[in-house]
Amino acid sequence: MNILHIDSSPRQESHSRALSAAIVERLLEVANGATITRRDLGADPLPQTEALYAAALASPATLAAPPMGSLDLSEVLIREVEAADVIVIGTPMHNLTIPSVLKAWIDQILRVGRTMKSTPSGKVGMLQDRPVFIGAASGGFFTGERANQPDFLTPYLSLALSSIGLRTQQFLPLQGTAFLDWSQAPLARDKALTALDLTVVGQLRGVAGRPAALSSIGRPYRDAPLLSRASPGAF
């Protein structure tokens, strides 16, 4: 099994990173032969949409004959998604929605004629469906009885992923992190993980046979720190 693990927090010690790492750990418990590809958007941000890429996407004609090199980064990122059996995304909620670094990734993988097609009834995904687990940390509360702010993160990210064919999604919110003492973080994280449903993983190929390995920069997940000190807020 191949896992694409994406983080988007600018802080190395953050609630969303700890949550996404915990999700990956749970996956490794049922798929100890997994290969992990790491895409750390917080530490290594993608460029915002550049002129050549925008020019390539401007019309069907320019997509058919794009400027040289304009789609190279997009193609790399899309192939990472295609190679993954499971995708894990860790994201904080920034001003009611996703961080700009995660939006930059979405802007590269949502591409007409490559990952989706436009039809009279709307966008239709061209990629094969696979599970996507999203660990979302928020300093405040956006869902449940204590919700006191709107949530544009969940509906936007759900629609964006669905539009390219990734419809099997699980959102695991970790809320109120601005009010969590560092000693309370593991318990809050474990509570968020109770909603995690890994039954779909058993249907995937290659779930055993070799130790987990990283295929890009990073440390083995069993050695990676979670939250070792006070980290107020969702970032």
Shape designation: globular
Share in helix: 25-40%
Give the strand tally: 8
Strand order of the largest sheet: 7-6-3-1-2-8
What value does the average pLDDT take? 87
Identify low-pLDDT runs: 213-233
Kindly name the structural category. alpha/beta
Q: Gyration radius, to the nearest Å?
A: 18 Å
SS strand fraction: 15-25%
H/I helix tally = 7
- Largest pleated sheet: 6 strands, parallel
Distance between the termini: 29 Å
Question: Which H/E pattern describes the elements?
Answer: EHEHHHEHEEEHEHE
Q: What's the oligomerization state? A: single chain
Brief overview, please?
29% of the residues lie in helices and 17% in strands. The protein is built from seven helices and eight strands, in the order βαβαααβαβββαβαβ.
